[in-house]
Design brief:
By secondary structure, the protein is of the alpha/beta class. The chain is 30% helix and 21% strand. It has six helices and six strands. The relative contact order is 0.11.
């Protein structure tokens, strides 16, 4: 579909085909990211979900550690992540300090910000890194259509709420 990405696809495919084994991705907290698992497997990665405990440590053969939306990690989990980083293992942390809950009832939408604690705050703080609690938003907004009923789905119901527009 995109000529600009052709070079990436050719090189990455050739690289993976020359690998002796599939690269292993150890994933912490990826239960709710099924689409990510599918994409990684399509890209010829072997995904291993781990909970990280004394009975379920990080796999020794993992090439990459992927930590997805960590919430309230315990000391053992943080220790394993620190150990992976200290050993030079490629590690990707996808973390945030809030989660949004969208609830639609009686034709109105309620947006609630739920604060999260990752459990990584102390570890990151030792390295001078922190997770920003502010919300990044674009000053420009565009109204979007939100179907509130099957009739709205068919004919395109508008939801003109400026608060909702702010988050789009």
């Amino acid at each position: 579909d995109s000529l600009g990405e052709l070079e990436y696809y050719l090189v990455s495919t050739a690289f993976r085909l020359t690998q002796a084994k599939k690269p292993v991705v150890a994933m912490i907290g990826g239960e709710q990211f099924g689409l990510l698992n599918q994409v990684l497997e399509q890209e010829k990665f072997q995904v291993r979900p781990v909970t990280v405990s004394t009975q379920d440590p990080l796999p020794q053969d993992a090439d990459v550690l992927l930590v997805m939306q960590p919430t309230a990690l315990n000391d053992r989990q943080v220790w394993e992540i620190q150990r992976a980083l200290a050993s030079g293992r490629k590690t990707i942390l996808a973390a945030q300090t809030s989660q949004w809950d969208y609830n639609m009832a009686q034709g109105n939408i309620a947006i609630t910000r739920i604060p999260l604690t990752t459990g990584l705050e102390n570890m990151l703080g030792q390295w001078g890194v922190s997770l920003e609690s502010k919300v990044l938003m674009d000053e420009q907004s565009v109204p979007i259509r939100v179907a509130r009923s099957q009739v709205d789905q068919m004919f395109g119901g508008d939801f003109p709420d400026p608060v909702f527009q702010l988050f789009c």
